[in-house]
Amino acid sequence: MGGHNGGDEEASLPLFETEVSKGKLAYRVYAVTVLVGICSIWVYRSMNIPTAEEEGRWAWIGMFMAELWFGFYWIITLSLRWNVTLRYPFKDRLINRYGDKLPAVDVFVCTADPGIEPPTMVISTVLSVMSYNYPPDRLSIYLSDDGGSEFTFYALLEASHFSKHWIPFCKKFSVEPRSPAAYFAQNSNPKDTTVPKEWLDVKKLYEDMNCRIESVIEKGGTSKDIRDQHKGFLEWNSEVTKQDHQSIVQILIDGRNPDAVDDDGHQMPTLVYLAREKRPYCPHNFKAGSMNSLIRVSAEISNAPIILNVDCDMYSNNSDAIKEALCFFMDKERGHMISYVQYPQSYDNIANNDIYSNVRSAFNKIELSGMDGCDGAPYCGTGCFHRRESLCGVEFSRNYRGELNSLCNTMKDSSVHELEQGSKVLANCSYEKGTQWGKEMGLVYGCLSEDLITGLRIQCRGWKPVYYNPERKAFLGVAPNTLDLAFVQHKRWGQGMFQIFLSKYCPFIYARGKIKLGAQMGYCVYLLFAPNSVALLNYLIIPSICLLRSIPLFPEVSSLWFLPFAYVYAARNACSIAEALACGETLKAWWNSQRMWLFHRMTSYLFAFIDTITGQLGFSQMAFSITPKVVGNDVLKRYEEGTMEFGTSSVMLTIIATLSLLNLFGFAGGILKVVWGYGIAEGLAVQIGLCLVVVVINLPVYQALFLRDDNGRIPSSLEKQFVEFATVLILAVLSSLQQEVSGIRFVIDREECFSHNVEYAMDTVHFSFVVIKSEGAWHYSPDGVDLVVKGPSGEQIHDFRDKTSEKFQFVAQKNGLHRFCFTNKSPYHETIDFDVHEAHFTYHDEHAKDEHLKPLLEQIARIEEALYNIQFEQHWLEAQTDQQAIVNEGMSRRAIHKVLYQSAALTGAGVLQVYLLRRLFERKLGMSRV
Predict the structure, then answer these.
(1) Is 262 noted as a catalytic residue in this protein?
(2) Catalytic site residue from 254, 451, 611, 833
(3) CB-CB contact of 586 with 639 (8 Å)
(4) Per-residue pLDDT tens over the stretch 273-282
(5) Which of 386, 400, 489, 661 has a 20 to 30 A CA-CA distance from 693?
(6) pTM of the model
């Protein structure tokens, strides 16, 4: 009885457990304090917007808009960490409970281009999933080749032969990982010295297979001997191209065939090659179309209730991954509600300190787990186990129980030929016409992020997803190893996600009332990556430009309003660092992730935003780009050394270098203002600090511009552009270092006086004026105006009479208000351009300067004075140019009027002459008649 009760108790135990992550309370306290800081920033901005007459109004408004966006965006990111949930399956309970009564599983592997995704890499992924610790009679593997390449088919044929040796080898020696490429790369020698010969034999078989495949690809075609190996090669002829070919379905291993066994005599899993029909006049809907064809073809051949889909570069790294996933689907209490189990996307080629931030530890370990806590774990397109019914559009109902263990093997009794012919029809271009495929069934069409929108639709039908992040990664792939590849990948993601937000599937609209609010917010965190870049650009451009122009955008450090800015920045970065360290990252890896976060929003997501908007307006079309998986040896070497790759002439790289230089010169200009003592350091301190952060983040960019000489540096074709831009920035810095010139253009009737405060005695005061024009259209008098300059005590310093223009300088004997009074003796209003500024050098008052620094300060002062003079002379010349232009215009106008009057007078005189001559002629004619 005790044993029986123990068995009942074992049968009632759940197959997985759910646990809420620790630290939830601490995070919520942190979130509340940051929210208070953000609101304080909003209050400060709204209370201190400059008036229309004040300088920097639009810059201030731009910063305010960016901070409003960042605050709103941060609020929705709270959903990702508000309820972080962890899952723990118990595969031992699964095996003890169900034994051999496990459901069949179909595995989909997708590839699209043999040039970008090498066939040798593709078959390593196929071999890894063929070798799962799972009954082979319940395992079917499908390779979808969207490139329709005979090279990929040949590689799969070779893999079908090699698998007879590889699968028993893996199971005999518990090989991990079960991708031969990854395994032999990680194990140069066998760990068990008692089996070296068998290990070497399998390795040689694998290397020989790779050599044959690569040799065929190099030759550009298959020989007759190879084509005679399998009837499938008859599908390829001279008319077959990547974008124009018929459906091709070939069952290379029939799992039902008793003769399909490995070297140990054990049954082999089913292996199928599929190339769906493609025609130039039919849309193929990219990966979504490929997946939907796989769903239909697999339903015809094996029809397993569970589907696993992986990308061709994501090999299986855990041979028990299927059993772990089934723990969620087959749990008695909650399993029937689960639609899919999503594993994280991880990589095996991560460089030292992850220079391109491919690991995304916080995303995988915290954010997706937070989405799972809201029952909103997203479908990420690879490494995902699906319940076939939910993927095919079935609505979840409370009465549904979905007993998967009753569906052990559903292979049909038809012959291989019949299955192939019946499947070809399902993969034709015309099959989906008039159906719900791509709408209510399968993956959704019309979006680059078809996986994300498909997962959202499944959840809105009532199904629950699960996110599972095991200690041993279930799948490992190839991460982008150049900047350009990383940009292309993130641009595709950003564009696809923003398309969803702007479509009818926006979670706040489509999913309202169907999924939790936290899940809606979590989805939008990613869907809004693209517009995030616009707000960030404000923070990258406006502060540096305003720093060069001495326009403060933030409160002074001594002000209480500085505290919210400082706290929000410090708290958010401290939280980010704590998360990175908790996830096993190093500080340097965290810093690299900050750099890539900035780079992607400067480039990938900015272009994704632009392309999405233009696409919505009908100016561009959606295009799916595949990330190449192979790079040159020199590029790979730099990647492994942790050196960033800039060796492409792309627009994205130009933007990064341009913004980096802008912030570098903004920072340099701010520092020089502090060193030269303009008394503005405190008001611009935050902007200087902000530029400094951007400069430090961009150090690899400056190295690639000025220091590196390898092929990974910024191309020489871009150097000229950057040199020109740098020159403009240098001039901007130099001009910004000049003190403000109080230029004014005014209209004078009789007398106008201006005051200028000279702060220090013995300063040099420069002033100039130009009479631009008079009000009268016909008036132009060279008499000019009078100007009297008086000192603080009323003493007369200078007196100018009847001047149309003048520039002068004098040394102020006293500090205080100096008055400049203009008198207009003309009866017409005159427009006058007036400039005044003073030159003061701080070293005059600092007698304790070091004797070695004083000559340097004197040189700086001379340069500064020269810059004053250049600007002063420039303004003087511009005013005179304006005057001359107006005079010329007036003279031209008067000349035209004169010509018109003369023409009118001559015309009138001519008419009068004709009239008088006619009268005279008539009189003479009358007299002659008499």
Answers:
(1) no
(2) 451
(3) no
(4) 999 999 988 8
(5) 489
(6) 0.78
